[in-house]
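Something for you to look into today, if you have time. Could you write out one complete protein record for me, on any chain you like? Leave the record below and I will have a look.
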Amino acid sequence: MQLRLPAINTLLDSWLNEDIGRGDLTVFPIDNKIYCAHWITKQNGIFCGGPIIKQLFQRLDPLVEVDIHIQEGEAFKNNQKILDLKGPRSSLLSGERTSLNIGMHLSGIATHTNKLVNELEGTGVFLSDTRKTTPGLRLIEKYAIRCGGGINHRMGLDDAAMLKENHIAWSEGIQESIQVLRKNIPWTTKIIVEAETIQQAKEAVIYGADGVLLDEMTPDQLKQLVPRLRDLAKQNSLQRQSDQIVLEASGIKTTDLKRYAATGIDLISTSAPITQSSWVDFSMRFNTTTTPEE
């Protein structure tokens, strides 16, 4: 995922403006001598957000140098120094809170994601996110999912055509909706159908969906349904570009991941890493000298 997009710069500016506003009043007693600071972890976890933190400080003040000692998606231990900063003291102070907020939030998502991904290790099933993200933060929250070992579902409504419960209820049905979509979207765009019943799932496959989201079905139901859907996909391959279909389980409890992974599905989508994760705890310590502390 590219992190040097105009959209990222817009986010950085909005975050800095939110906290600094017309100017940081607390820096008046602080001179602009070059000093150093560093970040210390206060628990174990998975790191995420380094490039964003570096861009944030450089956008605040080009004189600030950020030296990150850990890779994106790498595990850290409690009381580990993960980055050094060097720059004007006033700039380090002004960027402290915003940078920590972003680093702790994204690392919290990556940590939670990694925990769930580890439960699926060896199953061949992927863990995917959803569009249930914090408004304005989708790009970086989905980036954190990848740092934790998960994969991204569609970024937005323009990424893939997904027929959900209300689309089906307010349209002429699954068959008609898929046919209309095929006539109006690029051939490279995938069509996904959210199925709440076994009949809806079968219709989606028969009429050419590229993927089916099997919503709130039990593992026992899926064990019987998944092989039937794969057979249907092969029998109706002329309706899509491939006889392969992506089958996704959603609306499940994360405590049941292993049971769902044993049903033959391809991926499990969940909002849990974003909606249920806690921030990890980092602290920014200011050095008493102009050189980084060992």
